[in-house]
Amino acid sequence: DADVTQTPRNRITKTGKRIMLECSQTKGHDRMYWYRQDPGLGLRLIYYSFDVKDINKGEISDGYSVSRQAQAKFSLSLESAIPNQTALYFCATSEDSVKNIQYFGAGTRLSVL
Amino acid sequence: RKEVEQDPGPFNVPEGATVAFNCTYSNSASQSFFWYRQDCRKEPKLLMSVYSSGNEDGRFTAQLNRASQYISLLIRDSKLSDSATYLCVVTPNFGNEKLTFGTGTRLTIIP
């Protein structure tokens, strides 16, 4: 089983719909991250969390919100999806800030029509 | 100027050849450097960290040049399985834990 699991793996939705992407991990890491990847732009950080009570905005947080329900779970919501949120979304964890090696989930491919 | 820049490629290289590519970064205070590998439609995975003294892992060698602000990745005796996109990743400075990802260099090994 994967250490970092994302659900769903693929999702097609319509403009204006609320969407939640879920991430769970069995690595026991405190730090969790949400990224989006677009062709030609690389991975960009949306939100990150260092523990259950900690939420931080990343580079492109507008239009997104997150919830850290437990150490192992970090969900990303699109309150009202728009077409330019069509992208590949990755959740990641890291053990500490010294090495900051990121372990990624398999990704969620989201299409907003 | 982008914080992290990579030649997008593609690099098409015959099997068994040696290939190298660089990544430049703009923040001279950057502290940590990594190469990640990403297969098509898959998640990025750490290939290797890059240390100041340079480091080697089997057929892969990573180098850091702080004076010119670039890191490099050398792959020797390339295999078909090396075909992937290679992402350069930089941590801006101590205390800033957010990674900056390059857009990646696509490598295809040709039989």
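Residues 1 and 26 of chain B are 7 Å apart (CA to CA).
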